[in-house]
Amino acid sequence: MYNDDKENNGYVLNGELERQRKFMLEIKKLNEDFEKKYDRKKTMFISTFGCQMNAHDSEKIEGMLKTMGFVYADCEKNADFIIYNTCCVRENAENKVYGNLGYLKHAKNTNPFMKIALCGCMMQEDNVIQTIRKKYRHVDIVFGTFNLYKLPELIYTNIETNSPVFDIWKEHGEIIEDLPSVRKYKFKASVNIMFGCDNFCSYCIVPYVRGRERSRHPEDILNEVRMLAEDGVKEITLLGQNVNSYGKNLDENVDFSKLLRMVNDVDGIERIRFMTSHPKDLSEELILAMSKCGKVCSHIHLPFQAGSNRILEKMNRKYTKEKYIELVEKIREKIPDISVTTDIIVGFPGETKDDVDETIDVIKKVGFNSAFTFIYSKRTGTPAAVMENQVPEKDVKEQFNRVLEVLNPIVFEKNKAHIGKIFKVLAEEVSGQDENFITGRLSDNSIVHFEADRNIIGNIVDVEVYDCKTFYLMGKLV
Ligand code: SF4
Q1: CA 355 – ligand 1 centroid, Å
Q2: What is the DSSP string of 327-354?
């Protein structure tokens, strides 16, 4: 699980990582002195907002903090080191961070050792940094998405100088491999295959805060996957903002379909997932690779965002409604049992009821297995934020409900088709609803709850589905 020492495994550490390791050791010593003096270890609390990318970054943050000797706090207000890994894709997530920071000001008064750090996408926005400098002076360390690996150095600098440390880069540097990391699950893991995005969808802030697209070398990815397999990982999720353009900036002649085939050959890995796929870059080769690679799950998440070609153009998505539907048909032709899930935005500037009808038409024609539906969130700095005809909230809600009214019954019907059949399920965790139940995932990404002993967690088991709701299935162990 905990891979902070790669030398023994034959990996070459780059110079920057070695530098950070020295800081980690220095801080570890300081934390050991603290323990001797106060008879307790320094504690940490990590709060993660946003997508799987951020969740994966937080695993690295946790790995570094553990290497420095921090242990988990029982709750946030009792922690000595609090870090928020932030998201700026929607306004709610930003407001939550500000709200929590206000509360932490009081908590900090009662714990003289408390340090507060902020990182992630929000920190790449100039207006956020100005607000923090002005209104949240109790924050100790701030860094962005490009220099996560510098966390040990920034903590050390903050201790040395006893003053706030802000280190925000406007551009990415080299990809730093082999940071320590702590995985949430022993049996499944995410692997970044690329960082950043070049697509500039007009509503999206990601290209501005995560930088230009850059792919990791296939050998680095494969080494990581092999190491995870040796460590007992069965399911891998390959992560990128747009995995379908993987390899474009590499010297090696490799694209995502080739990478998928290489990962499929790694012994020990039983399931492969990936996200996210941009429809404009999904190639025939990839569809073929998915159909041929036995370990690739029968699921594709393919965001379509809007059904109206006029809105798709304003969104800068670079495909049409017709192309999207055609693409799904092609995928289903080669992989008939594949489940197709998507993202939908309602309320993009200028979107009318007729435009939403087009979205509803796509939902009906494709028959999605599931969808994340979002109300458009205006993000300062994106082209869409300054577009005319921003849709009033009440109209958006109305259209949003229209979309759900069509979508949910379709998803329910798709779920119903599982009833009476037996599926391979990766048993993931004890159900949050009932501790006698285990929650697991089918290859098609459906969630199933079934009664079983918790010692099956981490295994792929056979489950017969006997009932379903809109968002999950109920099953029994076979
Ligand atoms: S593909 Fe579009 S929506 Fe996705 S991260 Fe890039 S700009 Fe944002």
Answers
A1: 21
A2: HHHHHHHHSTT-EEEEEEEE--TT--HH
Q: How many domains does the chain have?
A: 3
Question: Which atom of ligand 1 is nearest to 197's Cα?
Answer: 6
Is 343 within 8 Å of 306 (Cβ atoms)?
no
Which two structure tokens, joined as six digits, stand for 59? 């695993």
pLDDT for 1 equals 31
Work out the average pLDDT over 67-93: 94
Element (H, E) at 215: strand 214-215
- Dihedrals φ, ψ of 171, to 5°? -135, 160
Q: Which of 90, 212, 239, 241 to mutate to test the pocket of ligand 1 (most atoms within 8 A of CB)?
A: 241
- Nearest Cα to 260, choosing from 248, 250, 246, 249? 246
Which residues lie below 8 Å from residue 33, measured CB to CB, with a gap of 6+?
none
CATH number reported for the structural domain that contains residue 113 in this entry: 3.40.50.12160
Q: Give 453's contacts (C-beta < 8 A, 6+ positions apart).
A: none
Query: How distant is the alpha carbon of residue 76 from its chain centre?
Result: 22
In three-state secondary structure terms, 424 is: strand
Q: What is the per-residue pLDDT for 178?
A: 72
Q: Give the integer Cα–Cα distance in Å for 124 and 87.
A: 10
Q: How many helices (H) and strands (E) does the chain have?
A: 13, 19
Residue ending a domain, choose from 416, 434, 456: 416
pTM to 2 decimals?
Answer: 0.88
Number of residues in the chain: 478
- Asked if 431 and 332 sit in the same domain, the reply is no
pLDDT of residue 14: 61
**Mean of pLDDT over the chain:** 93
In this structure, are 430 and 411 located in the same domain? no
Do 465 and 418 contact (CB within 8 A), yes or no? Answer: yes
